[in-house]
Design a protein that fits this description.
By secondary structure, the chain is α/β, with parallel strands linked by helices. It has a domain of 213 residues: Alpha/Beta hydrolase fold, catalytic domain (Rossmann fold, 3-Layer(aba) Sandwich). It is built from 18 helices and 10 strands. Strands 1-2-3-4-6-5-7-8-9-10 form a 10-stranded mixed β-sheet, with helices on both faces. Helix 16 links the parallel strand 9 and strand 10. The chain is globular and about 60 Å long. The two termini are 28 Å apart. Belongs to the peptidase S33 family.
Length: 439
């Protein structure tokens, strides 16, 4: 195997020619031999001192907006919160410590050919269990998540015990995110993300595997289950079960039950949360789905703008989770220092709405086993009864607390659900040939 490849980010601004000042942020800082990259290369993240210095310079030059008296969270991320985080990012936050924590996980890159889009160099974390018969699991993040969203569940999933199954975990940086290459052509939508996930697992020698995803990871996993189900994808699990009210044509029994059955307390809470989201929290989606490039100038040039844009979601989409300032800054820094820059990450919204309607997405069904985890402070999820239309639901858990980023916020809950689903006697035990999850 080749020596470890270090990802050194150099500021594109320092290399910009005066006659051609418009350049992409953070190009990959070494030439890529696509023939050589047909194999796996170890990856180590190292942000250049130049880029760190430039970040601090930008933070020094921050101009904050004013704020109305007693505005709280009504108008968005509070000035006091953002001001405190910026001060910490500028003078106290230790990126090298955060970087070392990222590099503590085994990471790699390899080329993946995507139909119609050429070859993309894909970054991923690959943590194998000590159990030879561990179940291969692909973790798919969304926005504003990233591959390190899985950092708390990986030690739990890969742990060996006679009492629960173990997993080999692959956490991919989706194209346009983290340290994967971004496509250069329009139209890279959910189907292409699903293709990348499937081909990545096959390239790792996992001819059969299972998938877990939330946020966009739910949509991508659903397409993977529909497209590759029973071939390579043997089961899937989501903590973001989204769908419409049951249709009489496709699910007449569930339709009638949903009409006459009284909502549970949890279902009422979910519907109330969805009403709040539609009224107060959906603006970001409309912006990212219609004019991602216009928004991208602010995200790419202003670290404070990026911080506020993501911090708002981290707080409002979780269930009173106590975010540590350094935890937030490490999360946002992955976006700031990402390979394609943070603007690339929001294009997935535009591409989805122009490629596939929600009704079409919600109609995709697969017979492979499906597990659902429900968290009350998530955004846009369906009540459990509606969600049984998503697929072949064989495992379902309703939790009393938790929000959108359950892998980070409630790792024990999410891992417990996966263990129960794939355990001996569980509904998805033995779905991957020769990979029971046990020694």
């Amino acid at each position: 195997m080749a020596a470890a490849m270090r990802f050194r980010i150099q500021s594109s601004h320092s290399r910009a020619q005066r006659v051609k000042p418009v350049v992409a942020r953070h190009p990959f800082p070494f030439s890529i031999d696509h023939h050589a990259m047909a194999t796996e290369y170890p990856f180590e993240l190292h942000v250049s001192d130049e880029d760190l210095q430039r970040l601090h310079q930008k933070l020094e030059l921050t101009t904050f907006p004013d704020e109305l008296d007693e505005a709280g969270w009504d108008y968005g991320a509070p000035l006091a919160d953002v001001g405190r985080l910026v001060a910490r990012w500028k003078d106290g936050f230790d990126w090298r410590k955060a970087e070392a924590a990222i590099n503590a996980f085994p990471q790699f890159t390899r080329d993946i050919d995507v139909d119609g889009f050429g070859t993309l160099n894909i970054h991923y974390l690959h943590q194998r269990s000590s159990v030879d018969h561990a179940i291969p699991l692909l973790f798919v993040h969304g926005w504003p998540g990233h591959f390190m969203e899985a950092q708390k569940i990986i030690p739990l999933l890969t742990s060996a015990s006679p009492d629960h199954p173990s997993f080999h975990v692959v956490a991919v940086s989706l194209p346009n995110f983290g340290f994967s290459e971004a496509p250069k052509k329009k139209g890279f939508s959910l189907e292409q993300y699903a293709e990348v996930g499937n081909k990545l697992m096959l390239s790792l020698g996992y001819n059969e595997f299972v998938v877990q995803g939330g946020d966009w990871g739910y949509s991508i996993s659903r397409i993977m289950a529909h497209t590759y189900g029973s071939k390579t994808v043997k089961a899937w699990h989501t903590n973001y079960p989204r769908t419409n009210f049951p249709s009489f044509r496709s699910h007449p029994v569930l339709y009638l039950k949903a009409l006459v059955k009284s909502c549970t307390q949890f279902e009422r809470a979910v519907l109330k949360r969805n009403q709040w989201m539609m009224k107060y929290g959906k603006g970001y989606f409309e912006q990212q789905a219609t004019r991602p490039q216009t928004l991208g100038y602010s995200l790419a040039d202003s670290p404070v703008g990026l911080l506020a844009w993501i911090y708002e979601k981290l707080v409002e989409w979780t269930d009173n989770y106590l975010w540590d300032d350094d935890e937030v800054l490490a999360w946002v820094s992955i976006y700031w220092f990402s390979r394609a820059g943070p603007a690339a990450s929001v294009r997935i919204y535009y591409e989805r709405v122009h490629a596939i309607t929600l009704d079409t997405l919600f109609s995709l069904w697969s017979p492979i086993p499906l597990g659902l985890s429900f968290f009350p402070k998530d955004i846009g999820i369906a009540p459990p009864m509606w969600a049984r239309t998503i697929g072949n639901v064989l495992h379902e858990s309703v939790h009393e607390s938790g929000g959108h980023f359950s892998a980070h916020e409630k790792p024990e809950y999410l891992v417990g659900d996966l263990r129960h689903m794939f355990a001996k006697g569980g509904p998805a035990y033995g779905v991957v040939s020769g990979k029971s999850g046990y020694a």
